[in-house]
Amino acid sequence: VHAVHLAADEIALLVEHGCHVAHCPSSNLKLASGIAPVARLLAEGVNVGIGTDGAASNNRLDVLSEMRLAALLAKGASGIATALPAHAALQMATLNAARALGMDDCIGSITPGKYADMTAVRLDSIELAPCYDPVSQLAYAAGREHVSHVWVNGELLVRDGALTRLDAQELTARAAQWQKRIGG
Fold it and tell me: Is this structure's pTM higher than 0.70?
């Protein structure tokens, strides 16, 4: 899944069999698993999607942060500054990830007939100024704290940063209960 330790013949097998890679850079770094050769995988034609893995190995579960880290790691690991441009990183976090899940016919891009799964990000905050290229800002500067609205299948679930269907206090209380149960 994470493809952090691949030989050239294994990459060729991924290509031959049309395999996908779920790239979860924070998880890989936290667990000291390694760094996926993303630039090489992309150059060879492997579909690479960006993920977060799970809460046990990624405390933020922030796809925007993962996109930034994926782009920077690809550049650093390959020694090529253009290895993973912002637009390619955004595609990895959206359409490529949907393709890896076998769901690119219904999610991953804003296209007629697909589910209306969308996230709006505020790019007008001081820490994101100036904004010359919105995609570059998404890939290199924005984080989950900049998300203003979220729609899933057309239903508004986050409005102006607040949950619309779930009670944040109730969720926090449930988390505290689980912390007590699991923590002993």
Answer: yes
